[in-house]
Specification:
Elements (H helix, E strand, L loop, with lengths): L1 H5 L8 H56 L2 H18 L6 H14 L3 E12 L3 E12 L1 H12 L5 E11 L2 E13 L4
Antiparallel strand pairs: 1-2, 2-4, 3-4
Length: 188
């Protein structure tokens, strides 16, 4: 074959042979390009798409499982809205002490106690909510004080009891309670 090209005999070959040789060389280059460039890129895209497909499949399974657990979604969303509104009531959007004072006065009277001290304390601001301490003093019988403490914990506004002290006085037992009330900061 080399002798064919080494001499002048290659000039006698038909043009078809040259065209076929060029097409063959170009085919080899295209094959190498496909093997080393396009195939790895396509394989990575397919692998990525399969991962996304599996992720979406897991999400569909989770949604179906959630729907199977909670049944009717309309009822579930209605319950969720009701609970959200209740939680908004427990954490009002203002720190108004007036509402708290009225509620504490009503609870003390309902428990047959005398409200002897109500002193707002320091205000603490957190990231999305605020906290205000209130020093509270009531006077009355032991079981009335226990009823008041229970009503305080079951009140309409979220609060935390920080400390309680009970001491004897000639007028009856005096209970001093330090509570914290909470409220949202900013818009809801």
């Amino acid at each position: 074959m080399w002798n064919l090209f080494a001499g002048d005999s290659y000039k006698g070959l038909p043009v078809k042979v040259y065209i076929c040789g060029a097409i063959f060389a170009l085919s080899i280059l295209l094959l190498l390009f496909n093997i080393f460039v396009l195939f790895p890129r396509t394989a990575m895209e397919i692998e990525k798409e399969q991962g996304d497909l599996e992720k979406l499949g897991r999400q569909v399974d989770e949604i179906n499982s959630f729907q199977g657990i909670h049944g009717d979604m309309e009822v579930y969303l209605a319950n969720l809205s009701r609970e959200y509104n209740r939680m908004e009531g427990l954490l009002p959007g203002d720190e108004s002490i007036a509402g708290v004072v009225g509620e504490l006065q009503t609870q003390a009277e309902a428990s047959r106690l005398e409200l002897i001290l109500l002193k707002p304390g320091k205000k603490i601001s957190h990231d999305k909510y605020g906290e205000r301490d209130i020093e509270l003093g009531v006077r009355g019988e032991y079981f009335s004080i226990m009823d008041f403490l229970q009503a305080l914990q079951q009140g309409t506004r979220f609060n935390k009891t920080n400390s309680i002290s009970i001491k004897y006085s000639p007028q009856g037992l005096e209970c001093h309670i330090n509570i914290s009330i909470f409220y949202l900061i900013g818009e809801k």
